[in-house]
Amino acid sequence: MTSHFWHRWFKLGGIPKREREQLESEQIVLLEEGLRGSVTLRKFKGHGRRSRYRKSIIIGAVVVTKKRFVAFSLWRPIVNITLEPEHITKLKVTQHLGARLEIAFEAADFMPGCSGSVCISYKTEKAQAIKRLLSKAARS
Question: pTM (2 decimals)?
């Protein structure tokens, strides 16, 4: 699957240089950039925002290293957690129709001062591999 044209032309949905260097030092296991997707907020409160329901289209990236999992929207991390079972088990990772990865979680678990639920959905052919890596981390 090719990356979104905004990523190819303008490098949107990629990983910023500073974060890339840090992630490479942690040994990248899987990297996908320029992914089309969406972020859905339900009953969300925090960071000066309130939203009963809001869905935004994004271009993002997913990185799994030997130490952590990071999901980006444009160049900002939405999820940035270590691969420890107590963190990974708070994520609900599902795969739909082979090429759709969905990551859902309660905002309070990873975003201090926030409440509600967050669902990130990416279109990627590596959805099964990402789900498998995160499931493996949750069991160890």
Answer: 0.84
